[in-house]
Amino acid sequence: MMDRYTIHSQLEHLQSKYIRMDHANTTKWEWLVNQHRVSYCSYMGHFGLLNYFTVAENKSKAQVCFNLMEKILQRCGPPLDKLEES
């Protein structure tokens, strides 16, 4: 019975459940994009960090949130050098 619940099958379950979960075929570029997006979401959710960014950039909270949202929604695909090769 314990054979069915190996670490490998648990990881496969998590990867199917959570879209951004890394897997064996994740490239370095994809991993970095995911890490940046998760970080930006975290900044928007923690109001202390958001206040820090507003003071540091001398902008309103709405403008800082808008800038972070733009960074999250940037183009996601292969790096540009891979597009030029094909």
From TrEMBL:
It holds the Pfam family SF3b10. InterPro entries: SF3b5/RDS3-10. One of its GO terms (cellular component) is U2 snRNP. GO terms for biological process: mRNA splicing, via spliceosome. This is Splicing factor 3B subunit 5-like.
